[in-house]
Amino acid sequence: MQAIATADIHLNALDHNLALVKHLTPETKVLALLKANAYGHGALTVARHLNGSADAYGVARIDEAIALREAGINTPLVLMEGFFSATELPLIIEHNLQIVVHCEYQLQALEALSSEHINALKVWLKIDTGMHRLGIEPELFPTFYQRLKACQSVQENIIVISHLSSSDELQSDVTPQQIALFNDCCGSGDFERSLANSGAIMAWPESHYQWVRPGVMLYGVNPLYPVSIDGVQLRPVMTLRSSLIAVKPIHAGDSVGYGATYTAREDTKIGVVAIGYGDGYPRHAKAGTPVLVNGRKVPLVGRVSMDMITVDLGADSEAKIGDYVELWGKNLAIEEVAENAETIAYELLCNITARVKIDVLSN
Ligand SMILES: *Cc1c(COP(=O)(O)O)cnc(C)c1O
């Protein structure tokens, strides 16, 4: 019996999605985002598998990067928010990490770095073109760039980047405005550029430049959902599955689960699945969220508990203990589950907890 919540990781789907990125952006290099444990898929598994096919990896925290280095990953590794404190610089240099520089504080720390670290740091300079989160003001770019170039510790080829706030909104004019501002700032500067996340890789070819930065699409999630792009068929890398641990006949009028929020209108059978918010299944998934039992779509009913969920199998169901349940993945779009939980697939993937068994499959 397979009662344990398991995330199958389909490595061939990862290959397929990366090939699709390269097909959409044939002239560019690929910085694959591995932050948050590779969106819940296992950073080391993904890093090992993409070794040699992605040009660089991006993470958000220095600990994520050091863990990859200590496991023997030699691919260029970029800290997407750079360093948070100058005290991290020795570690960054020791582990040969690349940094995003997005503010004056970081620049000053580099200017103050001892001259023994000649050319020790590869820098990606971030401009704020409208996200208003990280990045220097566009008008500061020329002087900032010159000051960075003057730092002895900073390597020659600085890459200039920005981040899009709305690449998943095809009708919005925010992205064209950000692209225009980015182009204005960069002018005819002799440096590589990077702007596109997954949404932009799929929908905004004019944002591709020399480096693209796919995250969620590598893992098979369509950031444009429910819109799809012709010829772009992503494959889910994770299938989250578990199994039935009880089948309980109930009568019309019986209610199910905490708070007794669901009451059966007619006699039926309730299936209890060994997965809950303690595994990362979203507690806010509403009644009716689809769940696949033996490949058949049935609705979630009652509240999601820590270790279990309940589904309405129907009065005539022959489902039994041990039967296969898919929560999302190959046969059930995670985007659809996310929609039912009023969140995004990104969050569902990142929320997978440590007790979920990871099964890495080559198919
Ligand atoms: C996470 C991240 C991305 C990838 O975004 P997706 O929407 O997952 O493709 C790209 N660039 C930066 C700076 C990021 O932090």
From TrEMBL:
Keywords, alphabetical: Isomerase, Pyridoxal phosphate
Active-site residues per Swiss-Prot or TrEMBL entry: K35, Y258
Residue numbers bearing the N6-(pyridoxal phosphate)lysine modification: K35
Residues where substrate binds: R133, M306
GO MF assignments: alanine racemase activity; pyridoxal phosphate binding
A Gene Ontology cellular-component term: cytosol
Catalysed reaction equations from the record: L-alanine = D-alanine
Record bears the keyword Phosphoprotein: no
EC number: 5.1.1.1
EC class of the enzyme, as a word: isomerase
Domain of life where this protein originates: Bacteria
Family: Belongs to the alanine racemase family.
Protein function: Catalyzes the interconversion of L-alanine and D-alanine. May also act on other amino acids.
Name used for this protein in its record: Alanine racemase
